[in-house]
Amino acid sequence: MPEGIIVKALSGYYYVQGPGDAAPVQCRGRGIFKKRGETPLVGDRVRYSETENGEGAVEQILSRSSELVRPPVANADLAVLVFSVVRPELSLVLLDKFLVHIEHAGLDAIIVLSKLDRIPDGEEGERIRRDAGAAEALYSSIGYKVLKTSAHRGEGMDELRSALEGHINVLAGQSGVGKSSLVNALVPGLKLETSEISDKLGRGKHTTRHVELVPIPSGGYLADTPGFSQLDFAELGIDEIGPCFREFREYAQSCKFRGCTHTHEPHCAVLQAKEQGAIAASRYGNYVAFMAEWKENKRRY
Ligand code: GDP
Ligand code: ZN
Questions:
Q1: Per the structure, how many domains does the chain have?
Q2: What is the domain-level CATH number for residue 168?
Q3: Which of 38, 133, 240, 271 is most deeply packed, by most CB within 10 A?
Q4: CB-based contacts of 275: which residues, under 8 Å, 6+ apart?
Q5: Residue to substitute in 85, 113, 181, 209 for testing ligand 1 pocket (most ligand atoms within 8 angstroms of CB)
């Protein structure tokens, strides 16, 4: 039985891309999934049967490596976090928040600093460049790939293409950071609507559409959901926040107390690393802020 990947779900049909170049096969789901409370998701690797009329049926869902709630995508393994350097300006708080979610969901992440061509001249521009450079240095030192792009001028796009190759990618980032523009550059012909008009008002558009996995000509799939400005993941426990800060992990093993919150405990190796500058003050500060926010709201973020 052939194996394929669900690239689209619409009106009770699943469109399964098989191993070849042929168009996706329109498949029905099996009643058995419903009985078991399983829902095939876009991104699912499945076994499917083909009938004579060219339709097919999803017979089996293979085990998932990840599962996102919004966008509803299975097996995404790389989150592309898009942050523009201007309009809106880079926010490390938001970046760290996205990273917590992504680490928790078990995806790897790359950080794309977009709209490089839009940095103004003069002192303001120099400050923006400095901040972008510092962010690049910080996050690469933690182990995230950081790319600088301009969708308009094509800068950094080859690096982006090769980073996405072989992955099921999801884009995330605030409205107006240039996600649609990047997608349009990656997948010519897709023609996603960019938010020219709302950008003039200083805010982006909000669109929700059904998810589709679009093959990137240079390799890999892209979840076609640039309207989503946030990724929602399953609820986080408070003790799950710390491990989502990648660089804390190696130190946390040496904390004296099990369940150390790295805030006030004696002989805390994370605190020590922060004091010695091995953990960045901004990262540690955001960790403490997220813990406080969690306690205040008792809600996920
Ligand atoms: P999205 O909301 O994240 O999908 O962002 P869009 O792709 O719709 O872009 C928002 C605005 O930023 C639009 O006016 C784009 O033309 C503009 N923009 C996107 N990428 C770039 C870029 O690389 N350079 C410049 N100068 N503007 C960009
Ligand atoms: Zn500790």
A1: 3
A2: 3.40.50.300
A3: 271
A4: none
A5: 181
Residues 122/112, Cβ–Cβ less than 8 Å: no
> Does one domain contain both 124 and 195?
yes
pLDDT tens by residue, 136-152: 999 999 999 999 999 99
Give the ranges where 86-121 is alpha helix by DSSP (H).
Answer: 92-105
Does this model's pTM top 0.85? My answer is yes
Give the pLDDT confidence of 48-68 residue by residue, as tens digits: 999 888 899 999 999 999 998
The verdict on the CB of residue 148 being under 6 Å from ligand 1 is no
Alpha-carbon dihedral 210, 212, 216, 219, rounded to 10 degrees: 140
What single-letter amino acid sits at 252?
A
Look at residue 120 and tell me if it is in a domain: yes
81 lines ligand 1 (CB under 6 A): no
Q: Please identify, among 196, 224, 252, the residue that sits at the C-terminal boundary of a domain.
A: 224
196 within some domain:
yes
> Which residue CA neighbors atom 12 of ligand 1 most closely?
178
Cα separation, 77 vs 166, whole angstroms: 10
24, 11, 10: which is closest to 221 by C-alpha? 24
